[in-house]
Design goal:
2 helices; 0% strand; elongated
């Protein structure tokens, strides 16, 4: 086998790996989107029920819910990024 043919086959295999990886990411993203929709449905129903039980509850104010969301989102994102960085560093033989 010639050097150029070997490189072409190697490149094709690498491309196939990236396509497979992209398809897995797409599937994970679709699952995450579906999960978000499920959580929204549960949230909306819980808010309706809470409004019946306690119409003055602070959680019925969207701004209050957004404050809770923003805080939780930022903390979760930071943890996820730190975990990803630590994993990446461990693969490179580095300390986090």
């Amino acid at each position: 086998m010639s050097y150029d043919l070997g490189r072409a086959i190697s490149a094709e295999n690498a491309l196939d790996d990236w396509v497979e990886y992209a398809n897995r990411l797409r599937a994970e993203l679709n699952q995450a989107k579906a999960s978000v929709e499920g959580v929204k449905a549960v949230r909306d129903q819980a808010i309706k029920e809470l409004a019946k039980l306690d119409p003055k509850h602070f959680f019925l104010v969207k701004e209050k819910r957004n404050e809770i969301y923003d805080l939780t989102y930022e903390e979760a994102l930071k943890k996820i990024e730190e975990s990803a960085r630590a994993y990446s560093n461990s693969k490179k033989g580095m300390k986090p």
